[in-house]
């Protein structure tokens, strides 16, 4: 596997409290890697640290391996090819759908290429075409999630960080969103996905990290983890 | 007509609040410095009105950026109250520095906009206020275009709504804050000169008078809302004019504050504003 992101011994603190206590993980080219964990496990913190939103207290984040990016601000990280689809979608509610998408391509200057990306995004999410002029805040939860994913794709990243895309969505919409994520991964884009919804996440993952209170407890392929009784009980709600 | 000039000041207030969530109390004094800069360009450099306007805008923009770096940024970490108090301090410093240099009495502005009266049917305008109106409309038009039609304007709107998301999308929000301060102050500089031109005077404490009125307009319109600031300023200008016309000129500020109280009671976020949580 050729890595494009390598994190070693990552530590993040909120004041004196350690939120991430020495996490190491990597993402290969074209892979979907999932960080699974309960609320407060530190999943979002890891993504925010990669994106430069949070300062790291130790360890290294390399993108690609050999090039440390910790300490860089988010507006520089995105220019390196990492895009974030944030927790709770983070859409710009007072801007139109079209403007949100244009903001997604803010870091790009190649107009013709951006136009091509926009039409690819519209092909993947045709619903957004008819909603273009609508205020993003007036979209439903599922539509906002589609917009947040599309906005991330507008940057043409080589690594896409996705933070709980299923959060607050009905199961049928969640299934649809995961279908789209699978479709995106098939284009060869590397994805680091953070999720609580193990059922859906395990279906599309190549590799899974299980995070508990800031530490990777276990990792492996979905098939391996599905053999684990604890994983089945805690994350899939299966009874022994 | 005065409403359109108040709008320039009010938009300056609201633009900075919108992006930084900071109330820049020194904004009226930045406008005052704009008025004195224009005065100097006309008297000492013998420049015409438009050169004076450009000079006022540039000096005010630079002053705004300096205030941002010296008084706002270092105090931002303590929440919104730090910059509020710090810019209040800057405001007092600017008033006194200018009073020390130019004296505390009003300094006559030459008839840079003409003192002629223009008759339009039953209405009589001074050339100064008419030109003031046209310049204010043009500047507001340019600002509207900048905010709503350019990539930089879109970055300002995105930053105003959610600075963390804007950063993650590639906006250097630090630069956006500086640009907002510069644009807001440049408009203030223009407004200062136009107000001075309308009154025929510039004085060190002129900001206290129109700063209050612009602040009332900003709050009525809704802090952070550019269209709100414009509409409310025009309304405030109209109320002032009507109060004058009906012989209630002495009570105009009392009337304005009454309107402000009524609006705040019925719509606490102002006409076009939205509720925000201040740290």
Structural descriptors:
heterodimer, A: 240 residues, alpha/beta, 6-stranded mixed sheet, 3-stranded antiparallel sheet, 10 helices, 9 strands, 26% strand, globular, B: 279 residues, mainly alpha, two-stranded antiparallel ribbon, 11 helices, 4 strands, 4% strand
Structure description:
The complex is a heterodimer of chains A (240) and B (279). With 240 residues, chain A is an alpha/beta fold. Chain A has helices spanning 43-51, 74-80, 97-104, 111-124, 127-131, 141-153, 171-185, 198-204, 222-225, 229-235; strands at residues 3-14, 17-28, 32-37, 58-62, 82-85, 159-163, 190-195, 207-212, 215-220. In chain A, the strands form two sheets. Chain A has a six-stranded mixed beta sheet with strand order 5-6-7-3-8-9, sandwiched between helices. Chain A has a three-stranded antiparallel beta sheet with strand order 2-1-4, with helices on one face. By secondary structure, chain B is mainly alpha-helical. Chain B has one domain (2-206). Chain B is 73% helix and 4% strand. Chain B is built from eleven helices and four strands, in the order ααααβββααααβααα. Chain B has helices at 2-20, 27-43, 49-76, 81-102, 127-149, 151-161, 163-168, 173-199, 206-221, 226-245, 252-266, and strands at residues 107-108, 117-120, 123-126, 201-202. Chain B has a two-stranded antiparallel sheet with strand order 1-4. In chain B, a hairpin with a 2-residue loop joins strand 2 (117-120) and strand 3 (123-126). In chain B, helix 2 packs across helix 8 (173-199), helix 2 packs across helix 9 (206-221) and helix 5 (127-149) crosses helix 6 (151-161). The longest helix of chain B has 28 residues, at 49-76. Chain B is globular and about 55 Å long. The mean pLDDT of chain B is 87. Chain A binds chain B through residues 51, 53, 73-75, 78-79, 84, 86, 90, 92-95, 99, 102-104, 106-107, 151, 155, and chain B through 151, 154-155, 157-158, 161-162, 164-173.
């Amino acid at each position: 596997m050729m890595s494009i992101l390598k994190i070693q011994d990552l530590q993040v603190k909120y004041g004196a409290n350690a939120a991430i206590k020495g996490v190491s993980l990597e993402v290969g080219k074209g892979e979907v890697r999932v960080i699974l964990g309960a609320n407060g496990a530190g999943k979002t913190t890891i993504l925010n640290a990669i994106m430069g939103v949070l300062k790291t207290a130790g360890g290294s984040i390399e993108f690609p391996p050999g090039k440390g990016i910790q300490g860089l601000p988010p507006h520089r990280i995105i220019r390196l090819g990492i895009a974030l689809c944030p927790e709770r979608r983070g859409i710009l509610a007072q801007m139109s759908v079209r403007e949100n998408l244009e903001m997604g391509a803010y870091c790009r200057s190649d107009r013709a290429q951006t136009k091509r990306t926009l039409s690819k995004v519209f092909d993947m999410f045709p619903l957004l075409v008819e909603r273009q002029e609508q205020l993003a805040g007036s979209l439903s939860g599922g539509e906002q999630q589609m917009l947040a994913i599309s906005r991330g794709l507008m940057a043409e990243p080589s690594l896409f960080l996705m933070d709980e895309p299923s959060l607050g969505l009905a199961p049928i919409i969640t299934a649809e969103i995961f279908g789209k994520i699978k479709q995106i991964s098939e284009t060869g884009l590397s994805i680091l996905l953070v999720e609580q919804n193990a059922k859906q996440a395990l279906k599309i993952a190549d590799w899974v990290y299980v995070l508990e209170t800031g530490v990777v407890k276990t990792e492996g392929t979905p098939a391996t983890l599905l053999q684990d009784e604890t994983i089945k009980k805690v994350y899939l709600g299966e009874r022994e | 007509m005065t409403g359109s000039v108040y709008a320039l000041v009010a938009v300056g207030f609201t633009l900075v609040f919108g992006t930084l969530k900071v109330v820049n109390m020194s904004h009226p004094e930045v406008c005052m410095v704009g008025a004195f800069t224009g005065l100097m360009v006309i008297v000492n450099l013998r420049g015409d009105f438009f050169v004076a306007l450009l000079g006022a805008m540039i000096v005010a923009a630079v002053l705004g950026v300096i205030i941002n770096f010296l008084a706002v940024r270092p105090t931002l970490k303590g929440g919104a109250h730090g910059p509020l108090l710090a810019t209040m301090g800057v405001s007092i410093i600017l008033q006194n520095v200018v009073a020390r240099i130019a004296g505390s009495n009003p300094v006559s502005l030459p008839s840079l906009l003409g003192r002629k009266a223009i008759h339009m049917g039953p209405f009589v305008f001074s050339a100064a206020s008419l030109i003031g109106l046209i310049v204010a409309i043009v500047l507001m038009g340019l600002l509207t275009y900048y905010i709503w039609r350019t990539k930089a304007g879109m970055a300002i709107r995105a930053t105003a709504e959610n600075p963390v998301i804007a950063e993650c999308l590639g906006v250097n929000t630090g630069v956006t804050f500086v640009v907002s301060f510069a644009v807001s102050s440049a408009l203030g500089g223009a407004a200062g000169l136009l107000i001075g031109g309308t009154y025929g005077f510039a004085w060190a404490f002129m900001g206290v008078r129109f700063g209050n009125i612009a602040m009332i307009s900003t709050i009525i319109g809704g802090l952070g809302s550019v269209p709100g600031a414009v509409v409310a300023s025009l309304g405030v200008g109209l109320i002032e004019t009507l109060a004058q016309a009906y012989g209630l000129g002495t009570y105009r500020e009392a009337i304005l504050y009454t309107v402000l109280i009524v609006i705040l009671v019925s719509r606490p976020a102002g006409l076009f504003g939205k509720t925000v949580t201040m740290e």
